[in-house]
């Protein structure tokens, strides 16, 4: 009886997952979302408000405060303006929305009083102080202030010291926002303008964070050869310890941490003493020296309690993790209980930078400790607390993990109804987390792009400054020569140069415009053809599904629909791409042929062979290019054959730059296939083949004969069809 219940539970889980996938696909259709933005206090409409979909469409409100934008269920709508607090709205349904906004009240920016005699220096200081003020709040705004500090102004000269400070601040911004590669470049630029020990230490840390470990080690070791203050010496040895720990060298890691600890004790640098005891404990734990690790962790716990609650809580969590790794679960549970109590007393004052220092995460880890001891009943209350707290804090990651763990516990103790209920909640959380992660990825990509653009702008400003300095020097040296020339000569020469430049510019602009217009037309044509290919393909595929379901049992139909949904997902994912990797096209083709064979088992067999020498990652192909030829082979060749036919698809490498794709069938051939068409079918043109030929023609025009296609009969009696495509790498 238990086995039967367990099988029933698994079936329910699978059906829930399938329903979730179907639901997610149905919600992925775009629609025109309409709404309005109004003032929360006056209820008056607000015009010219930025409205955008993260990673997608953009628009603004009209004079009536209304907007219309293409969106999908699950998209995150961002409504922002300098005049009010940015609003984030998740699209849950196709309905008119009203967004109420509040005036921005944020913290005031730092202000530096300007003196008429030192306006230039005051401008630079104001902008750099503002950049530091927003460093941990708004990366883009912070970088914008650095840009404004470096922008050329009248009667202004940026000194090397100021340049160094500006690029150091940029490096600090990059390092805080986890862009170590940009941080390395900016710290190097800072040092080029003005050598500094503090910046050199930051550069060494940035190397380590960017996983340039050898460069980091070399930089720290070079710093030890110079004159360092006591605090800098501690930082250098600590940085070396961090780097050696990152590459798994426990001995050198502990050695350098110990050096740093000795220096910190000698100079009474209390915060570093606590941190270094903790880091030595971690290094010993990583090396397997558990007794030594426990001794240093005990020290760090005692020292952390003397500092503040936040530091004590952080250290307890770290030591609890150590006990978990060593399976000392009772000690772990005790520390986490203490951590929970202290977090509750701290309330909103608890730091959110460490994700582990939250009630939901601590409850989840306590539950895991009980599960590891097979104390399931004791784990359940902590998981329920973790889920409730995570739901309140909108922590979907912990909510997902805790809900799944709770479902597994109920399953293991035989309470299958509760296990099913928990698993259904888990599926719902996974769906929500899936949407959120997609939005975060899109937002992160956009954030990275915008930061890079601002970084390039600053680099351009520095180059412009150097160029201007060179021009000023050259102008000064040639001033006497320029003064000897007559005004008429200057006017004539200048006029000729301007005329020639204008002619060259006009000719170049005309040529570029024609070329861009032609390319844009081709891109538009390709998108149009792709937009026709997908409905055509889906229509034919749905006809196949409908026909198959009408003659088969429900279980087989469900299996067919599952494969069909996978195919549809692949088609839709690739629909916006001009080219996709050859490997993806082969996977899509295999799935399509599998579906057609599933329907026409008695009509044909198939064989797909891929040359082992083909480097899949080096070749790309327009999506859905091969499918129409395969569809033609099945529907117009093999389907009408009386005996069982054969479909062969071969991928053969001709040379390192070219591959040949052959689609061969021994069907009735093109001549006989035409005779089977009805009068209505003869009047209609084949959308799939026609669009494919047009796509190939446009692509060959744009990319210089990238694809070559040849169609011929296989046998002398006009039966069978062979399609050969020659695909070139570039």
Automatic annotation (TrEMBL):
Every copy of the Signal transduction histidine kinase internal region domain together lies at 526-604
User: Which residue ranges does UniProt annotate as crossing the membrane?
Assistant: 491-509
- Tell me where the signal peptide lies: 1-20
Does the keyword section mention Oxidoreductase?
Answer: no
Key word Transport present: no
One Pfam family named in its UniProt record = TPR_16
Give GO MF terms, alphabetically.
kinase activity
Keywords for this entry?
Coiled coil, Kinase, Membrane, Signal, TPR repeat, Transferase, Transmembrane, Transmembrane helix
The UniProt entry annotates TPR repeats at: 234-267, 274-307
Which PROSITE patterns would you find in this protein's record? TPR
Annotated coiled-coil segments of the chain? 312-346, 444-471
Name of the protein described by the UniProt record = Histidine kinase
Q: What species does this protein belong to?
A: Aequorivita iocasae
């Amino acid at each position: 009886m238990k086995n039967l219940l367990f099988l029933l539970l698994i079936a329910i889980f699978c059906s829930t997952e399938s329903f979730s996938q179907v639901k997610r696909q149905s919600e992925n259709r775009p629609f025109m979302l309409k709404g309005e933005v109004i003032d929360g206090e006056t209820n008056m409409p607000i015009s010219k408000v930025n409205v955008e979909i993260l990673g997608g469409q953009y628009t603004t409100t009209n004079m009536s405060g209304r907007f219309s934008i293409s969106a999908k269920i699950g998209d995150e709508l961002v409504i922002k303006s300098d005049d009010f607090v940015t609003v984030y709205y998740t699209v849950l349904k196709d309905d008119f929305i009203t967004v109420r906004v509040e005036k921005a009240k944020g913290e005031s920016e730092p202000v530096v009083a300007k003196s008429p005699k030192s306006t230039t220096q005051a401008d630079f200081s104001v902008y750099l102080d503002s950049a530091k003020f927003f460093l941990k709040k708004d990366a883009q705004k912070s970088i914008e202030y650095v840009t404004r500090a470096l922008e050329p102004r009248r009667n202004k000269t940026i000194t090397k010291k100021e340049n160094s400070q500006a690029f150091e601040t940029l490096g600090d911004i990059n390092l805080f926002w986890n862009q170590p590669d940009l941080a390395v470049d900016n710290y190097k630029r800072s040092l080029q303008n003005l050598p500094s020990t503090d910046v050199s230490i930051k550069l060494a840390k940035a190397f380590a964070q960017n996983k340039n470990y050898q460069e980091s080690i070399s930089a720290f070791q070079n710093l030890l050869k110079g004159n360092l203050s006591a605090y800098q010496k501690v930082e250098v040895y600590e940085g070396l310890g961090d780097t050696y720990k990152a590459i798994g060298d426990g001995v050198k890691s502990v050695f350098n941490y110990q050096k740093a600890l000795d220096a910190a004790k000698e100079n009474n640098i209390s915060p570093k003493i606590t941190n270094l005891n903790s880091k030595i404990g971690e290094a010993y734990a990583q090396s397997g020296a558990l007794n030594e690790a426990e001794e240093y962790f005990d020290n760090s716990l005692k020292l952390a309690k003397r500092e503040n609650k936040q530091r004590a809580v952080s250290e307890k969590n770290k030591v609890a993790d150590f006990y978990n790794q060593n399976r000392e679960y009772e000690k772990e549970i005790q520390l986490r209980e203490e951590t929970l109590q202290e977090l509750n007393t701290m309330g909103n004052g608890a730091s959110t930078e460490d994700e582990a220092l939250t009630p939901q995460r601590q409850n989840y880890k306590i539950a895991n400790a009980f599960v590891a001891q097979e104390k399931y009943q004791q784990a359940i209350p902590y998981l329920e607390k973790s889920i409730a707290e995570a739901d309140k804090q909108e922590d979907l990651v912990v909510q997902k993990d805790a809900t799944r763990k709770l479902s597994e516990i109920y399953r293991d103790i035989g309470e299958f109804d509760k296990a099913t209920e928990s698993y259904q909640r888990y599926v719902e959380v996974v769906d929500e987390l899936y949407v959120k992660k997609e939005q975060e990825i899109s937002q992160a990509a956009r954030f990275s792009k915008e930061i890079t653009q601002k970084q390039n702008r600053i680099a351009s400003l520095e180059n412009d400054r150097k160029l201007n300095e060179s021009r000023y020097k050259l102008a000064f040296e040639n001033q006497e020569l320029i003064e000897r020339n007559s005004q008429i000569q200057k006017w004539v020469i200048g006029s000729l140069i301007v005329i020639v430049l204008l002619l060259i510019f006009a000719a170049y602009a005309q040529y570029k415009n024609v070329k861009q217009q032609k390319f844009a037309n081709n891109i538009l044509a390709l998108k149009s053809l792709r937009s026709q290919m997908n409905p055509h393909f889906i229509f034919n595929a749905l006809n196949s599904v409908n026909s198959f379901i009408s003659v088969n049992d429900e279980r087989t139909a469900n299996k067919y629909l599952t494969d069909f949904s996978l195919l549809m997902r692949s088609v839709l994912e690739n629909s916006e791409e001009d080219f996709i990797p050859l490997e993806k096209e082969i996977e899509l083709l295999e799935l399509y042929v599998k579906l057609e064979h599933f329907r026409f088992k008695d009509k044909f067999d198939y064989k797909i062979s891929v040359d082992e020498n083909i480097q899949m990652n080096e070749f790309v192909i327009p999506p859905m290019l091969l499918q129409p030829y395969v569809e033609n082979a099945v529907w117009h060749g093999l389907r009408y054959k009386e005996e069982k036919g054969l479909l062969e698809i071969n991928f053969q490498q001709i040379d390192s730059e070219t591959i040949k794709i052959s689609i061969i069938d021994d069907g009735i051939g093109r001549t006989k296939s035409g005779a089977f068409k009805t009068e209505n079918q003869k009047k209609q043109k084949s959308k799939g083949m026609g669009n494919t030929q047009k796509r190939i023609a446009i692509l060959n025009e744009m990319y210089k004969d990238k694809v070559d296609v040849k169609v011929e009969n296989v046998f002398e009696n006009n039966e069978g069809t062979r399609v050969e495509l020659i695909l070139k790498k570039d």
